[in-house]
Design a protein that fits this description.
The longest helix has 17 residues, at 33-49. It contains seven helices and six strands, in the order ββααβααβαβααβ. Helix 4 (99-111) packs across helix 5 (131-147). Strand 4 (122-126), helix 5 and strand 5 form a beta-alpha-beta unit. The protein is of the alpha/beta class.
Length: 204
Amino acid sequence: MLVLIDESGDAGFKLARGSTRHFVVAMVIFDDSKEAERTSEIIGIARRDLRIKPEFKFNKCSAQVKDGFFWAVASCKFSVRALVVDKHKIYSENLRENKDLFYNFFIKSLLQHDNDALVGARIKIDGSGDRAFKRELGAYLRRESKSWKIANVKFSESHRDSLIQLADMVVGAIARSYRQDDRSDHDRWRKMLSGKIQNVLDFK
């Protein structure tokens, strides 16, 4: 089993000055390694056909490219589990003031409700992005793997790994669905994933 993990949003609480209202962490799960390889090839073809260089990034793609990406992976067999945190509902001063604690707490919250998706799993994490998130996630998974269920944990650069790009696009689509602004497409790409989403937990 292969599991890819990525996040969208940040741990900041200065919501009026640029911090994201929602923090989302998601797992993309492949039960079959051959299907993971096939999906990687499909994404590579989509990248060529859509003329994307060097990689798919949800927040940098046009709506047309997002459509093309999710149409391309529609036939691929993977599942998604995610945790969504609305910061307006976070009252703990420790979580609001300690970035590392914030990441650690919500990483655990997602992984402890994995529905056994991590038993024997190989974990891949985007090696770029927020360093605090990657550090906390990697440290937590390695601690748990010693006495728990994970086979191994690796970091991978997204521009070299199509499946890490898949995780970015998936978590981006879920996060976008919570931005109910004046645009009508806020949940458009999440709907394109509806058959693959096992569970999205809203932290309460």
